[in-house]
Structures
1.
Amino acid sequence: MTLFSKTATELQQLLHNREVSVKEITEDAFSRIADVEGNVQAFLTVTEQEAKAQADQLDNVPLEQRGPLFGLPIGIKDNIITKGTKTTCGSKMLEDFVPVYDATVVERVKNAGMVSLGKLNMDEFAMGSTTEHSAFQVTRNPWNLDYVPGGSSGGSAAAVASGEALFSLGTDTGGSVRQPAAFCGVVGMKPTYGRVSRYGLVAFASSLDQIGPLTRNVEDNAMLLSAIAGNDQHDFSSSSKEVSDYRKALTGDIKGLKVAVPKEFLGQGVDEAVKASVREALQVLESLGAVIEEVDLPHAKYGAPSYYVIACGEASSNLARFDGIRYGYRPEGVKNLEELYFRSRSEGFGPEVKKRILYGTYALSANQYEEVYVKAQKVRSLISQDFADLFQKYDVIVGPTSATTAYKLGETIFDPLTLYANDILTVPVNLAGVPAISVPCGASEGLPIGLQIIGDHFDEGLLYKVAHAFEQATDFKAGTPLVGEGQNR
Amino acid sequence: MTHQFTKDDVFYYANFARIAFSDDEAEQYAAMLSELDKFAERFEEVDTTHVEPMTHPLHQVNILREDVPTEILDRGDMLASVKEHEDGMIKVPNILA
């Protein structure tokens, strides 16, 4: 059976009509994993036995007790903790770490009756944009195995794109759900800060981190966000604002929608094919009745320095907990406590993580605090104000998700204009705490391109409405690549 | 003003972060940090007079809950991830060298 290319709604219908069982869906997912995982390498841990046992139990649940996500397979990024299942954060530091409780999002997907397939690869502690900074393995882009899947949620995007998982959870601190979603041709949502509980997410930068869903279509994505969003008493930064059924927003009607397109989003450094694809997408939105206007996002260009200072500062503080004592890597034969700290951290962390901890330590040090850290926080205020000003007049802001399509494995991007353009596109969204979604809008040389739609705080419903209307009006529904059998699209 | 990191800077900040580097590594990290800090050059052109620092994206203050006892995690479960423990307590090496 090849169930992996179906949507959640189609599978739910089959389950409902008893044409297929949860067990069969689960087995189908693992058979797809067996077929393509050798090439894609998205999973760090596969929990086949547990999943099949769970599927057997779920098949006994009466139909009337089942929700829209019941019995459907999901993969979880490996920085979201899972009771009894190793959670490594892609780091040698947590190579053997088995959590003793579930993150709130994991509890919620379990309560929805979803079946977890395992844990997905990522850049170490979510620091990176290619998933090449994982301490364990290199994940490949299912559309072309010589290319990266993006990052840091590269495993989450690749698993969904290749049909290994119908759903996945990723995390986005500076673009880590949206950029891999764009690179792998899937839908990725970074919700409003506080929309989804961070309880049980291994913290990177606590004022920026958000958990978000990745799927092959907008409707599936909306359903998963409805299931995981909402207040959690274990995370006081989670919002108590009511969560709507986001599926109800998918009306297809975007007549009169006011769309702002910042000049900075289609400027120098953005690949011509990406620009062309986004311009075509804007025409599609226009044809559906949206009104498009070019605008300025004047402080976006200061997003990168502000982001690096704040994210590294918060990371240096958050990662201080890894001291080799209660959990995590602990070296042999240490003589005293000081040596234990130094050796655990020096041997347990990889180079990118060390660099960011050092930079954060510098930014937070007494000599630099005002001039570097507080300055970055003030710039963050200005960026946030830019968004607030635009949302007074416009409903959504639209642009590319990434300046280019996926990079070749091992190929560092040195072009300063490209780097610069990429920093403008995703990072300001996290600094302002607003939601943004990436939907497939085309391809160049066989590699997908993503359209980014940004909304005001807690406007996820509107983002889904726009993304869905666009998706229905175009042919860029994600599709499933023929992994390793010659590339398609 | 951006900072040109030296090897000694790396050792200085690494000591606070409890990370050890060899001489060669410290040179490499000095170069990487100087590169990263180049971004901060852009800060110089932004006027932030009278701008308040933003510490958090949502303005939620004093979120409190009732102080009621709840079930906590099992000690045995928690110790399962600890490399060395004895009588329900975590073992650490000598604190005084």
2.
Amino acid sequence: MTHAPVPGRTTAAPIPVATGASPGWRGVRLAMVTLLVISAVGPPALLAMLSASQSWFYPALLPTGWTADAWSAVVRRGPLARAVGTSVVLGLTTGVVGCVLAAPIGRALARLHGAARHVAVAAAVLPAAAPPIAVATGLQLTFVRAQLAGTPVGVVLAHLVPAVGVLSFFFFAVFTAYDTRLDDEARSLGASPRQVWLRVTLPTLRPQLGAGVGLGFLVSWGQVPLTLVIGGGRVHTLPLEVMGYVQAGETRFAAAAALLLILLPIVLLLVASARLVRGSAPASAPAPASAPAPASAPASAPTRVSA
Amino acid sequence: MTAPGGVPDRPLPAPAANGALDVRGLAVSFGSHAGLAQIDLSVAAGERFAIVGASGAGKTSLLRAIAGLVPCTAGRVVIGGRDVSALPPERRDAVYLHQVPTLFPHLTVFENVAFPMRVRGLGRAEIERRVPEMLAAVRLAGFGARSPQTLSGGQRHRVALARAMAARPSVLLLDEPLSSLDPGLREEVREAILDVQHVDRPAVVLVTHDLDDAGLLADRVAVLLDRRLTAGTPPSALFGHPPTLAVARFLGFANELPGHVLADGTFEWPLGRLRPAPALPCGPAIGLCRADAVRPAAGGVPLRITGLRYHAQRTTAVGELLVRRDGQGTSADPPAWPTSVELQVLPGAVPAIGDILPVTVDARDVSVFPLR
């Protein structure tokens, strides 16, 4: 619908509307996005092709022959599949045990004030900041004496050293942001400190705990020096398999193993970030503070009561 | 209890026989700042006691100390005849509610209200019976399955109150329960507080900086000023005749005019002469009265209107009294003392700026404090 100009009134000039960035800036932006996509998708795509290539010689852009023997080995539960299983079990164990140890540490750190807080945080994070090979060298003698060297338990304990350092810092941040009024109110309502921890604090922080397990998993997942030194070659994890295949010139198998090494953390990070975002946002937008209360009860019936 | 540093406390008086809450000689430290000292208060079962004070006066710290959420450096807290000073919060039989209701976000409304019963190990049947009762008491019947995030501000307040009452406390401690609410919701939550108190009739202690809330909700009101708590008095007595000049100034009396107590005991001030009771010593003094105590009246002291103030529920006019020190009215001489006066005006009788109104004040509405 158009409006005819009103006689006797001047027609206002159209107000200029910003139509976005200049063409030059749009080009820069497009180039940056393209680079980002290539850097994210390129390496996994290259590894995927390499893992399935029978032959691939310069100057061919794509492999000239294809084979699935590396992936068959994974599916057939060969050494590669066993290494994946070992890494997953070590990673999950490190993540879960690391959270159990680091959550109380982070909580205690968050309750400190002043200089003591800085010193304690630095001390807690130090194992993660130290080079893993130095940590491994330091641990090895003790682990040999304790007959833990060369065992999966020994490797998990070694992985826990940097994992607990990283996770302590993570939970320090989590508990610094945590609303302690929830705990106060629960105490005032009659809950003991243990009940507050189990019924309020931990359930409220469930998304952050999930992310913590993922973080501990990642610390273990890519760990080479600690696994190599403490495992003594008897605990085969995926990173060690990649190293072994590279040293043996088994490019296809190295590529397949490396692709697995990349893909699982990506999936884990996506899941963890989705959980964190969902956990930090309310389930649905709260009604405005001035919204009147419904006059009658909503249709939903109360409520299954758990024992 | 012995204060840190090994200094023994002063002997504490015995708690009142029927007191649900009795606090004697309580002191709370604020770190490097001077904290609360020598706080005494006693609240009976079913009574509502308000503590008013400026922001930062320590009202919240006092409530949290009674609840056991911050340590006391001295004194004694007795709840239901039992000294709970050394007990942790969960064993004090006092529930503390934050200014902003903190419902547990991972639990439904039903489970939030059931929380105090579950941590006490109550049976499933009793929980299923009592939670709907508590929700009905705050007019939220049928809201059990809702998530706290889906509730309005007033509904969250009411759930928090129902949850607090589900613990069946002897003492309910409310920290600024209405301060974060808009006017419509304040009335809603005010009613909810009265509703839930009828369930088990706990002693209610609420802190607020809003004098209207204190007056509307409380049976007695005390003022926290300069680290000390005044004795609790009914709102009418406190707001009508504050016990000290400091309390009167905190309560914000609109009119504070200097005067003099003469040898015959009469108090002379710009609004005339009156005889204060009890009698005051001869010398300079301050008279205070509220805006609604000053009334237009024929034969009163002339007041030239210099401005109008529009409040939400009332209008006041401010002006200068046309008087000299000897009390004789004049329009020519400059005033010999501060003569600014505020009075409440009726909607149909709002004066214009520049008008001269004769005004008077009833001696019973004036509080006089000696300056020495």
3.
Amino acid sequence: MKLKLKIWRQENREAKGNMISYDVEGISEHMSFLEMLDLLNERLITKGERVIEFDHDCREGICGACGMMINGRAHGPLSGTTTCQLHMRSFKDGETLYIEPFRAAAFPVLRDLKIDRTAFDHVIQSGGYVSASTGQAPESNSILIPHDITEAAFDAAACIGCGACVATCKNSSAALFTSAKISHLVLLPQGKTESADRVIQMVNQMDEEGFGHCSNTDACEVECPQEISTLHIGRMNYEYNKALLLRK
Amino acid sequence: MKQTTLIYKLIMALTGLFLCFFLIIHLLGNLQLLSPPELAREQFNWYSHLLSGNIVIKIISYVLYLSIIAHAVYALIITRVNAKAQGSKYIYDKRSEVSSWNSRNMGILGTIILIFLIIHFKDYWYIYKFGNLPLDADGNKDLYTIVITSFQQAWYVILYELSFIALGFHLLHGFFSAARTLGLYHLRYAQAIRIVGWIYSLAITLGFMLIPIYIYFNLNS
């Protein structure tokens, strides 16, 4: 395959970036999208140019490190996949691809396609945990949880924090990410006790990081590699309203 | 209490739902215009008089003015926050493929509705409250004649119809979005609210659209 790539290049956080064109030949359709970028980078190294930097880790769709806008869509055209799970057979020979980093005020570009998602960590640190006194881990079967509840909690916990929801949201809202964490913990008995404080703190933190409002367009659900449901946003709102009314 | 994104959204949802409720009452009152002309005149003027004198209605009307203003003001605040949250723009943007047009453009639809409301208030509310209206046979202000006369103009009918279409798309997303903001997360009821939202939006939109068309084509003198 032969492709024309238009890739966002940016020296550092402060620099102004722009799109640079690359003609890449000899791409196999079995390559993953990231392998295709590896191929381009190898050629750039031979030519003595600076490589295109992008985040990646597991390359099997479970770590949430990779993520870019491919032809104007988060993680490319396929639904329910991360960038590393996208293969070149999804594109046509001779096509032009536009590759950009995820963009949001809360996700500054560090270099090229690499962004700073620390804002997500701050949201988690503000309440996405269960407080536990130190000591031995309790016997795992001492708290009985019905199977459907654990499954529902796991559906929410499946969020890998890639940031596609923020990238695709017209308001750069982190509602899907934050709500998935809140839903995951509120469904389980261990997380329930702190639910009121947690939701207030996490929503406040989400605002502080500079994410926008949720307009309920449901675009995030479509682009989420883990297909996290926007019903979790409803649950976050429910927990938030409940906390507003009933919190001591 | 800190004003968070969710508190802003709650204000939008609550004022929006109150306006949704008001639209039902407003449409039901207006449907009287579809009665035979003489009966309609008597009924509609009597009804308008009833509304203007009642203390309960007066309180509701103040809640209504407040809701419209709050809904518009908070929409502006939210839009500003969202614009700031976006950061730099995408060079090549196809994000619109994954969401509906009306859900992304509630602000534009809302602006159309607000402009319409200013015209609407000026032409009926202001005239009725502060203008010199002729009286009908029962001694009530003859708002009926004002309404019928105004809808003899084709451009005025078109203005109304276009505004109602904007309203319809605004309601379609707004009704569902308000339910979500209030915390509806149960799958079955979330689906039910989508259907109720469709029925509500269609009924309100088509109901309001029918009246100017009916007057223009049937009561053209």
4.
Amino acid sequence: METRVIINDERCKSCNLCVEICPEKVLRISDRLNPKGYRPVELFDNEACISCGFCYLICPDAAIVEIRRPVKAKV
Amino acid sequence: MKTLYKVPGAITDTPTTYCPGCPHGVAHRIIGELLDEMQLTKKTVIVWPVGCSVFGYYFIDTDAVEAAHGRACAMATGIKRTHPESFVITYQGDGDLASIGIAETIHAAARGERICVIYVNNGNYGMTGGQMAPTTLLGQVTTTSPYGREAHANGFPLKVPEMLAAIDGPAYIARGSLDNAKHIIQAKKFIRKAFKVQVNNLGFSLVELISSCPTNWKMTPEESLERIRKQVLPVFPIGELKVDEGVA
């Protein structure tokens, strides 16, 4: 399944605001480093994400680039 | 997959120079989204201030001017009067607008100049190391008020939107906050109304955005947003303070 939250690692400054605001707690600070020396955020549970967009709204660095929701197939 | 939110095209690829967790970036994104939605990006001129957002022209892809400290409203007046077809915004902090530039701001508002002012209030001079600003709360510790701001020595916090709402010139005055998702959506509505005031040629509009400064408040980003909710919003309540007739 395609990812619901697209994150730009190079813009992330590891401020933790999206991790705190996420109602389903599916984001976390990763172990890798970006070119500026911050640890970028990652989506670790794509299935539990509800595409609410709170992380996009609170992100001060436009590092959460896009929020997507799967389209339900018509029967 | 259906796209629900996407970073607007008016935001450039340059990473911002702000500290981690600084809500300046949220304000930039809201402005970028509205410029794209209202198709104003091509004819916009943003007047940038002196302060943390001094490099703003690297982050929003519009025409831009850098004003002397506090003089953004005066410069925007000149741009709007010589190019009435352009869409003129000023983006100012509290040290810039409420302290050194208060005269320019009040007289631009009193003349009813057709400009939009985005006023970001974080209660101190962030760029120079967190000195006391006119909007610093009573009791707040800063580098120039090490025992907390005292009313008898330093005065009371200045409420600029309330002052401007008392004069007849402005068409739209509001105060929003950037501390949670609900308030960010509300702040976007206020700024959309302010932009429509200028598009419809109704007069001066100002939106104050309550912001935080995690570095100089010496807090984590989450703690600084919690402080906005507990201490700042009771002093600076959010809402629309002046809405003239015809403002939709």
